[in-house]
Amino acid sequence: MKVLITGATGFLGSWIARELIAAGHTARALVRRTSSLANLEKLNVERAEGDVLDRASVERALEGCDAVIHTAGVAHFLPGDNERMYAVNAGSVEIVLGAALAAKVTRAVLTSSTAVMGGSRERRVADESTPGNAEALGIDYFISKLRGERAALALVARGLPLCVLRPVVALGPGDIYHSSATTFLALAKRQLPVYVPGGASFTDARDIARAHVAALERGRIGEVYILGGHNLEIGDMVRRVAKVAGVPAPRQAPFALAYAVAALVEGAFRIAGKRPDLSRQLVKASRLYTWVSSAKAERELAYTYRPFEESLHDTLRFFLQTGRLQANTPELRALAD
Question: Could you tell me the residue range of the domain that residue 165 belongs to?
Answer without folding.
Answer: 2-172+201-230+290-306
